[in-house]
Amino acid sequence: MSSFEEEKPFLKRNISLFNDQHKELKWYDNPILQANDSSPVTATTSSSLCTYVWIGLSIIVLLPIGLIVFILFLIFWILPGFGWLYERYAEARDRKNYYPPADEMKPWGRDNKLIHVVHLLAPESRLPPIVYISGMGVSMYLVKPLLKKFAEYMGEPVEIISFDSPGYGASESPTDWNTDNAEIELSLLRRVVTNLKVRKPFILEGASAGATLVQLYRLTYPEDVAGIVLFDPTPSNAFQQGSPLASDFNRASFVCRTIAFAASCGLLRPFSPIVRYSASREFSDIYHLLLPGYFELSLTKAMLLKIANHLRSLSGMMDNVLKLQNNAIFDRRTPLLVVSALNWTKNRPSGGLTREEMRHWWSNSQQSFIRSSDNAGFVRRTDYTHMQCVLDMELAANATKAILTQILCGIVQK
Prior knowledge:
Blueprint: H1 8-14, H2 16-19, H3 49-78, H4 82-97, E1 105-106, E2 115-120, E3 130-133, H5 140-154, E4 160-163, H6 182-195, E5 202-207, H7 210-220, E6 225-231, H8 246-264, H9 272-278, H10 281-287, H11 292-297, H12 301-327, E7 336-341, H13 355-365, H14 367-370, E8 376-381, H15 386-391, H16 393-413
Parallel strand pairs: 3-4, 3-5, 5-6, 6-7, 7-8
Antiparallel strand pairs: 1-2, 2-4
Helix pairs in contact: 5-16, 7-12, 8-12
């Protein structure tokens, strides 16, 4: 923490900005982090009989038409190879049109593959830098604008770093997908913060599956990390036997590989507008934020293969985290905050559990992150779905301010 010693007078004046009005509460119980009780919890309710009848009749009428269109599409577009050729042309066109600035593409991947690195500079900042790791299937095309909003909500200059691992967004795909594993992801994160000469210790923030890499880095290089914020982290036991998500995750990897093959044949791109606007609420929260060209790039073969391999490597990464938490010696004083999204919109979300059972399992399983720190907080957001939690940059800024109170208090007390 020595790099912040000279800022003690400034820190003493600013610690109170977040929690002066709520001194009787724990640092993570501040009302601005809590669920808005006035906002109703969204849930799937029973539709009327008329609605079900209407849907049934629509399927009966539209299904034969859709089947005929699909057969004609296969005969005249896919089988002659026009779809394959157009997919390559369209993907090259979109990547050129939406290619990041040259200074954001760094040869820091394996075999010097180019990696898309977003670095929001703030030379005048007196706060610890923030390294943000996004979740599965999300690229800097979406994250960069969100991080700019995050910086605005912070209300004070702050340095922010994030990047796409190989295969996501503009980052080049690995030569061999089998080399995509936990060790490679960890070494890439280490290389990014080292090459950018990020001031240490910094704050690590992870959303969804990105939380696992954040926790792995913190346990491996504890001296680098001042604090941790996790936004609805995927539980470390998600792939284990008995988990209601295990079969879904294992099946998702196979489905992504199958869809990747369909994408390479040009089968997805013509239907992308339908996919974009008919997606379930969870995915539509992300899709509607993407420009059309960005959305098409999220349905490419490389992106889908990356998601499939991310699922495969995530299981091994979670095992490493659990082993380190049980066996490694690390600083348990590092402040850690978990924001849990508990608004499950389906009556039976996964594994045959009811909505309430899934909410209970999810929040209990996330406690493994909490147990790795003696200064941890857990915020239950029953008004937020998973996607709403990871996309709300005002919530992210408030959570960061909360963790800063603990980091800065620790500095001032030294």
